[in-house]
Design a protein that fits this description.
The protein is mainly alpha-helical. The protein is built from 2 helices and 2 strands, in the order αββα. The protein starts with a helix and ends in a 9-residue tail after the last helix.
Length: 50
């Protein structure tokens, strides 16, 4: 494997890692498919209503 192939492999690995990190950030902003801002505004399901 020549130097160019190594660079291509590293670039591909970095692109895949960046995409995975981006998806983790996006999912981190959602809880059970609901944006966090809305999630925090919802009442707790185990609240007693007081």
């Amino acid at each position: 494997m020549g130097g160019f192939e190594v660079l291509v492999d590293v670039a591909q690995h970095n692109a895949e890692a960046a995409e995975k990190a981006w998806h983790e950030v996006v999912e981190g902003e959602r809880r059970e498919g609901i944006p966090v801002e809305l999630w925090r505004a919802l009442p707790d399901s185990d609240a007693d209503g007081n």
